[in-house]
Design goal:
By secondary structure, the chain is an alpha/beta fold. The chain is built from 15 helices and five strands. It has a five-stranded parallel sheet with strand order 2-1-3-4-5, with helices on both faces. Helix 3 (64-71) links the parallel strand 1 and strand 2 (75-79).
Length: 357
């Protein structure tokens, strides 16, 4: 092969790979998770000071625009539904490619659930892997999350999964994702409507400890070691919910491990009265996830806690944070509408439909 032929082959291969990646990014299924991740990738480099990771208690519980508007904290959620703890390290690695956060905020709920319950649930694994840009870190995440080696190629090249999703190729909102970068107007927040009343279960008297699934403990120790090596600080959260006694016992096992490693744990279930959180009005799904009313209370409490315990900069008014000012303004308008809707539902006892598993 001549040098000219070799050069043509290299150019062809580079063009093919570019087209493959671009088309893949566009035809990945559109939705809230994709919007959240392309929004993160669209953020200006080195402008985010806290990365929030974890499953579905993250993105509706803690409002990045509110944290910014009230404390000046620039935080962003890399959260997916039923996010397996194995994914956390890879998401934090991904975040550090473009950002230099001083704080990792990690939600703990999924550590109480055996990994095998979710390992074969493709949709939740793909919620992580199919929303990362192509990279070696993404390959490592797939290898960690997909035990069936014969299936990994469909994750490495997720166009195999979405090849029939060609309708997105004519959607302007998805064509804009050709680099997997598209600004999220609310910085990853998902404001929830609806009210599903429930009653709080007070487990403060439960002091026994129960070891979670061995694999989750192993993942936790590995994560703590990696965080220490990274030189970053971390805050671990337990978001408020109707908790079972077994969950409480597992937190009683997990929390001392984290604290002994030198990191704080904030269990918001211990501060329900202080927050003014009302289980009869502030959840949309009967005790698992908060609506807009609960989100405002949880975010306010978290913001005050971060202010008291961490030296995060106040970014308000700084150059480069104009999109955060816009997000704060949009949030206030959207939040007011959602809260009014929830209050109207409460007044009329218009309760959300219960989902039966």
């Amino acid at each position: 092969m001549t040098k000219k032929q070799a050069a043509k082959a290299v150019i062809f291969l580079a063009g093919f790979i570019f087209i493959l990646i671009t088309v893949t990014y566009i035809i990945r299924t559109n939705g809230d998770v994709k919007d959240r991740f392309v929004g993160f990738y669209a953020e200006k480099d080195n402008t985010i000071d806290a990365i929030m990771v974890g499953s579905s208690p993250v993105y509706p519980f803690y409002s990045a625009p509110k944290l910014y508007g009230e404390q000046g904290i620039a935080a962003y959620p890399l959260s997916t539904n039923n996010q397996r703890p194995k994914a956390i390290k890879y998401l934090l690695k991904e975040a550090q490619k473009t950002q230099d956060p001083s704080l990792f905020i990690i939600e703990l709920r999924m550590f109480t659930m055996p990994d095998e319950e979710w390992e074969d649930t493709m949709v939740f694994t793909r919620g992580v892997t199919d929303n990362l840009k192509y990279s070696w870190n993404r390959v490592q995440a797939i290898n960690a999350l997909v035990s069936d080696k014969s299936e990994r190629y469909t994750y490495y090249f997720d166009i195999f999964k979405y090849h029939s999703n060609w309708k997105t190729m004519v959607m302007p909102s998805q064509l804009a994702c050709w680099r997997y970068e598209k600004a999220h107007p609310l910085k990853g927040l998902e404001i929830k409507y609806g009210v599903g009343p429930t009653e709080r279960v007070d487990l403060s008297g439960v002091t026994q400890a129960q070891e979670p699934a061995a694999e989750q403990v192993e993942v936790l120790y590995d994560l703590l070691s990696w965080i220490e090596d990274s030189g970053k600080d971390a805050l671990f959260l337990v978001s408020p919910y109707v908790m079972e006694e077994a969950d409480k016992k597992q937190y009683n096992y997990i929390i001392p491990i984290i604290e002994e490693a030198g990191y704080r744990v904030l269990d918001l279930n211990d501060h329900v009265e202080e927050m003014g959180l009302d289980f009869g009005t502030d959840f949309y799904d009967y005790g698992s996830h908060v609506n807009a009313l609960g989100e405002a209370k949880c975010t306010a409490f978290l913001g005050d806690y971060l202010d008291r315990n961490y030296d995060l900069p106040d970014r308000r008014g700084q150059a480069g944070y104009e999109s955060w000012d816009s997000a704060w303004a949009l949030y206030q308008e959207a939040q007011a509408q959602a809260e009014a809707s929830c209050l109207d539902d409460i007044a009329n006892e218009n309760w959300a439909p219960e989902v039966i598993d």
